[in-house]
Hints:
Layout: E1 5-6, E2 10-11, H1 13-18, E3 27-33, E4 44-45, E5 60-68, E6 81-89, E7 102-103
Antiparallel strand pairs: 1-2, 3-4, 3-5, 5-6, 6-7
Amino acid sequence: TNTNYYGAGKIDAYAALKGLDSRYQAIKVYYSKLTDVNDKSPYYDVNIKGNFTLSNITPGIYRIFAFWDKDNDGIESSGDIIGYTEITVTTGGIYYPTIKLSEMIP
């Protein structure tokens, strides 16, 4: 089945235009420098394959977070699916981190 369609055969226009699979449509990614976890980046979208690109990141140690906002409240909260990984960014590096998601428990 084509996951870019839902309901009565209507296309998910947002997913189609952004190149997103509807399973990944609600997943958001952001990062913060380990030395300042309160200063988080804007949200980045996840593509149809579950991949994302973060650009113009200065060298340092970062946590990259991904979360599926199941209740659509715009924040990570109980019942959402969340995960993170830490990476060390160097000048000119390309990284392929894996983030395992699990349900947040109150």
